[in-house]
Amino acid sequence: MHSKNKRPMTKAERAHVDRVRQLPCSVCGASGPSEAHEPVQGFWFISIALCADCHRGSVNGLHGQRVMWRVHKLDEWGALNITIRRLEEAA
Protein backbone atom coordinates (compact mmCIF):
# COMPACT_ATOMS: atom_id res chain seq x y z
CA MET A 1 0.00 0.00 0.00
CA HIS A 2 1.34 3.42 -0.91
CA SER A 3 0.92 6.22 1.60
CA LYS A 4 -0.29 9.47 0.06
CA ASN A 5 2.33 11.30 2.16
CA LYS A 6 5.21 9.28 0.74
CA ARG A 7 7.12 10.40 -2.34
CA PRO A 8 6.98 8.08 -5.36
CA MET A 9 9.82 5.61 -5.84
CA THR A 10 12.66 6.55 -8.14
CA LYS A 11 13.45 4.37 -11.15
CA ALA A 12 16.42 2.85 -9.27
CA GLU A 13 14.32 2.16 -6.16
CA ARG A 14 11.60 0.51 -8.28
CA ALA A 15 14.20 -1.72 -10.00
CA HIS A 16 15.64 -2.73 -6.62
CA VAL A 17 12.22 -3.50 -5.12
CA ASP A 18 11.31 -5.54 -8.22
CA ARG A 19 14.45 -7.65 -7.64
CA VAL A 20 13.62 -8.09 -3.94
CA ARG A 21 10.09 -9.25 -4.80
CA GLN A 22 11.47 -12.07 -6.96
CA LEU A 23 13.32 -13.58 -3.98
CA PRO A 24 11.99 -16.26 -1.63
CA CYS A 25 10.79 -15.17 1.80
CA SER A 26 13.73 -14.25 4.02
CA VAL A 27 12.02 -15.77 7.07
CA CYS A 28 10.39 -19.05 6.05
CA GLY A 29 11.93 -19.56 2.60
CA ALA A 30 8.61 -19.74 0.73
CA SER A 31 9.27 -19.28 -2.97
CA GLY A 32 8.68 -15.89 -4.56
CA PRO A 33 7.28 -13.67 -5.64
CA SER A 34 7.44 -12.03 -2.24
CA GLU A 35 6.28 -8.75 -0.81
CA ALA A 36 8.88 -6.05 -0.17
CA HIS A 37 8.75 -4.94 3.47
CA GLU A 38 10.03 -1.41 3.96
CA PRO A 39 11.39 -1.22 7.56
CA VAL A 40 11.66 2.57 7.41
CA GLN A 41 9.17 4.52 5.32
CA GLY A 42 10.82 5.73 2.13
CA PHE A 43 14.02 3.67 2.55
CA TRP A 44 13.36 1.28 -0.33
CA PHE A 45 16.95 0.08 -0.64
CA ILE A 46 16.61 -1.78 2.67
CA SER A 47 13.48 -3.67 1.59
CA ILE A 48 13.10 -7.21 2.93
CA ALA A 49 11.62 -10.09 0.90
CA LEU A 50 8.69 -11.58 2.85
CA CYS A 51 5.83 -13.89 1.91
CA ALA A 52 2.36 -12.53 2.72
CA ASP A 53 2.11 -14.70 5.86
CA CYS A 54 5.49 -13.65 7.31
CA HIS A 55 4.74 -10.04 6.43
CA ARG A 56 1.06 -9.47 7.22
CA GLY A 57 -0.17 -12.71 8.81
CA SER A 58 -1.89 -12.29 12.16
CA VAL A 59 0.01 -15.21 13.70
CA ASN A 60 3.30 -15.49 11.79
CA GLY A 61 3.62 -11.98 10.40
CA LEU A 62 5.92 -9.15 11.28
CA HIS A 63 2.83 -6.99 11.76
CA GLY A 64 1.19 -9.74 13.84
CA GLN A 65 2.43 -12.07 16.59
CA ARG A 66 5.72 -12.90 14.78
CA VAL A 67 5.56 -16.62 15.57
CA MET A 68 7.52 -17.66 12.46
CA TRP A 69 10.08 -14.95 13.14
CA ARG A 70 10.65 -16.32 16.66
CA VAL A 71 10.85 -19.93 15.40
CA HIS A 72 13.65 -18.93 13.02
CA LYS A 73 15.21 -16.58 15.61
CA LEU A 74 15.07 -13.61 13.24
CA ASP A 75 14.45 -9.91 13.56
CA GLU A 76 14.33 -7.33 10.75
CA TRP A 77 18.14 -7.04 10.69
CA GLY A 78 18.58 -10.79 10.24
CA ALA A 79 15.94 -10.93 7.51
CA LEU A 80 17.54 -7.95 5.77
CA ASN A 81 20.90 -9.73 5.87
CA ILE A 82 19.34 -12.78 4.19
CA THR A 83 17.68 -10.57 1.55
CA ILE A 84 20.97 -8.80 0.72
CA ARG A 85 22.87 -12.11 0.58
CA ARG A 86 20.31 -13.57 -1.83
CA LEU A 87 20.40 -10.45 -4.00
CA GLU A 88 24.19 -10.79 -4.24
CA GLU A 89 23.96 -14.49 -5.04
CA ALA A 90 21.44 -13.78 -7.81
CA ALA A 91 23.62 -11.06 -9.39
UniProtKB/TrEMBL annotation:
This is HNH endonuclease. It comes from Marilutibacter spongiae.
